[in-house]
Amino acid sequence: MSDPTFKQRARYWFDNTMSKGTKALIGWLTVITLVLTAIGALFLAIVGGGDGFAGTLWTSFTHILDAGTITGDSEVGYPFMVVMFVTTIGGLVILSSLVGVLTTGLDAKLEDLRKGRSFVVEKDHTVILGWSDQVFIIISELVEANESEKRAVIAILADRDKVEMEDEIRSKIGDLKTTHVVCRTGDPADPDDIGIVNPSQAKSVILLTSGEDDPDAQLVRSLLAVTQGGQGALKCHVVGAVSESRNLPAARLAGGRGAHVVDANDLMARLMVQTCRQSGLSVVYTDLLDFGGDEIYMVEEPNLFGRPLSQALHSYRTSSFIGVLTKDGRCIVNPPSNAQLQPGDKLILIAADDSAVRLDGSRPFIDESAIVARAEEKHRPERTLILGWNAKTRMVLEQLDQYVAPGSVTDVVTDHPDAAEAIRKIGPTMRVQGLNFKQDDTTDRVLLESLNPGSYDHIIALCSDDVAPQLADSKTLVTLLHLRDMSQRSNTRFKVVSEMADDRNRTLAQVTQADDFIVSDKLISLLLTQTAENPHLSHVFGNLFSPEGSEIYLKPADHYVRPGVPVNFYTVAESARRRGETAIGYRVVAEAQQAPSYGVHLNPDKSLQFMVQPSDKIIVLAED
């Protein structure tokens, strides 16, 4: 084959130049303008027009840029007029081409901006990869958390239109306060697209999964893309949640040491079991998980180094001590009060805000005469009713078996096709509780009345996973409405913990009391947000939600202080310390129907006096 000709080479070079876009087109128009100016000046010099070389150049250039200049050429002469007419026509072509090029380039730039592909030049921002209904909860919580900052930024990367994301955020979150939300369009599992939101300069990355068939696969891909996809050494921490327990090891392996991945199903099962067994516990957990009330902070207090933790317990008037984060990264909740705080250790405290964490130099007053030492009552067998069945039910039964006393019974009622076989396999593994199974429709009012729900200590309503999420939530709502109507008619309170597959249906359930708790993806969103702000909180909540070690309990107040006697919370905390427990609040049963706290007073001012009644509760961290 013969070598390319000069014409082919020139054409190839010209095509490559033109393919560079608007800048190249403007460059060519500039060159053509200069050439046309020079040609016009040359012909002017030939016909004898103009005033020297510089004058002919200027005359030619002004005719190219301003077509109106030609109106004065008739007085100069016919040859001059012909040359300038031709030059002006060339100028009109150049200017019209320039306008077209600029318009096209501007439209292309606006389209690029609409696509959200520009680099996010931010630092210490929060990155959210993916899009789901959880994003609105997370943004709302981050807005609350960032309220004390002058300017905070949230960068979102999702496979959605940038303008649509911004419009949806504005419609569902009215006031962003000091937080600025930046949306970008891209694949949250593509390392190149992730680079747009600048994760290497972020303070945290939150991974969300969409409602696709296998969301955990997307989560693993995103974890690999963030941690090993060429983003450099990430200084921030990455948080996410798997929907199936069997995928947790793979997700943690993909995320590496910098990732904090939680098991959503296991966490929700633990919450259901703990909250259904203790009235008011749901309010405590909601308060700790969101940024609206009290949160958990970790502070280093050099003034307490080398001193027993019992001193830390009484050193904060408006904060509640709950544990220690050791210098080697271990999280100890409800540690022994005689243990000493070592240099490098951090105190784990509950406070309304980090600015409220202040050492109180005054000597706390402890009323020894009000402290009582009453023995714990033995746990009695419990009856639990589970309505519905899904992948979390096995975990719920396993958790219940670790909490309830011997002789307890759990009845499962559902029309799920897989439930009978699963119960047959799970039954022999239960250590202390017995299992009964009845296959029937949980939305049937006659069936519910025959079960006599008032005779059960706890009721758990689960969403079936053998139907669409909306249909499952509809059936759960019907069951809840029947239970509430039966409760009102019989004047009997039912402790019902329910579940919603779609968080948008949570508000339809109309929570009316603290025991009427609804578990949904909102709690997972809150936990992810808390962990994004402080990665060590994943260990704190992991300890609190686990049956091993210390958890949150609401115990009779008359086991700690004398009822009807004015006491302060320093006295209550000291009484709990002597029992190997850590007191963090109390619940007034007389206020149990008053929203939104339902009588729960978490992290009270320890110097203020109050009186407890025998039916009131003390909120403590204890091993049992």
UniProtKB/TrEMBL annotation:
InterPro entries: CASTOR/POLLUX/SYM8-like, CASTOR/POLLUX/SYM8_dom, NAD(P)-bd_dom_sf, RCK_C_sf. The chain crosses the membrane at residues 25-47, 80-106. GO terms for cellular component: endomembrane system. It is found in: Endomembrane system. Residues 266-359 form the CASTOR/POLLUX/SYM8 ion channel conserved domain. The keyword Cell wall biogenesis/degradation does not apply. It is a multi-pass membrane protein. Gene3D superfamilies: NAD(P)-binding Rossmann-like Domain. This is Trk K+ transport system NAD-binding subunit. It comes from Glycomyces artemisiae.
